[in-house]
Amino acid sequence: MGLGHTRDDLRANAQAKLDDAQILLGQKRYSNAYYLAGYAVELGLKACIAAQISAETIPDKAFLRGILNHQFGGLVGLAGLAGLLNDQKDADPVFAANWALVSEWEPDSRYEAKDPMSASLLVQAIADPKSGVLQWIKIHW
């Protein structure tokens, strides 16, 4: 992700990546569906982080480096959502299971072959309209 993406760009790209992952899943392109679904979460979390940045303040160098990270736990922290994430996991066991599955995603998955079950479970964990990870992110972006 290059510099200069607006929060609206990040939101739109997150949803587009999930939409594409669902299409790829339907076309039995499991590895690519898996990768794009996780990327949707990353972009969604970065949209949440964008909400924390003041237009007239230069962020701390460590904060800027953290934004370029792909680890969901770190991105949740930068977005100021760690406590809210824990509250949601405590309140909704399905969401907690979805988050546990999603948090296993990493960028290097693009080099791995994924089976139909792994891809389906990840896409569902992210897209679930009631307890999905992207639905929770959308509340905060």
In brief, what are we looking at here?
The chain is an all-alpha fold and 141 residues long. It is built from eight helices and no strands.
Largest sheet entry: none
Mean pLDDT metric:
92
Proportion of residues in β-strands: under 5%
The helix-strand sequence is HHHHHHHH
Structural class: mainly alpha
How many DSSP helices?
8
> Could you please say which CATH topology applies here?
Four Helix Bundle (Hemerythrin (Met), subunit A)
Q: Indicate the CATH class.
A: Mainly Alpha
Number of strand elements: 0
Low-confidence stretches are: none
Essential attributes:
single chain; 141 residues; mainly alpha; Four Helix Bundle (Hemerythrin (Met), subunit A); 8 helices; 67% helix; globular
In words, what does this structure look like?
This protein is mainly α. The chain has a single domain, classed as Four Helix Bundle (Hemerythrin (Met), subunit A) (Up-down Bundle), CATH 1.20.120. It has eight helices and no strands. It has helices at residues 7-26, 30-50, 61-67, 72-78, 82-91, 93-102, 116-127, 133-140. Helix 1 (7-26) packs antiparallel against helix 7 (116-127) and helix 2 (30-50) runs parallel beside helix 7 (116-127). The chain is globular and about 45 Å long. The two termini are 18 Å apart. The relative contact order is 0.19.
Chart the SSEs and their pairings.
Layout: H1 7-26, H2 30-50, H3 61-67, H4 72-78, H5 82-91, H6 93-102, H7 116-127, H8 133-140
Helix pairs in contact: 1-2, 1-7, 2-4, 2-7, 2-8, 5-6, 6-7
